[in-house]
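Please, does this match?
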Amino acid sequence: MTRSWKTLKVITAAALLVGCTPSPTDAPPPQTPGGHSPTSQSSERQGQHSTDNTEETEAEQLAEVRYYVSKLPDRTFVDTYGGEEHPRTWYTAAEALGAMGKIAIPALIERLNTTDPYELKLALYALMLASQDPKLMAKTDGHYLQLTTVLIQDTNDENLRRARAWVQRYQHLFH
């Protein structure tokens, strides 16, 4: 084999290996319908095994909260489920924030002041889901944010009234 062929093989192998290396990303992985993001699961596991990483874990969770809150107004940040016969919209950011529970609530409370009806409907929905965090419900005697019909902008006014009343009642748990 000639020297140029060997060089070409080495360069080709190196290029293939570089292509296999995952690129770093500043965004958490998107949620899938009914699932948890791997970031959340690993953070939970780290918190269970070591208290030394508590600050790092909380910082990671807060970064994830900020990311998903920034995606609430993005109408393209959705997925579908239910198949072709019964397609349903999966509001990725709202579902992710709801799954995070109590840690997401302060950021969601801030979003209740948005003037975007789409973002408000998702913030209300996410707040309802987050309010069902079992650890939080233990402190609220099982009370969580109960809304009227969710994910319909026509109910934003009533749902916002209910959300503000719930926040007023339990605000001492979030500060």
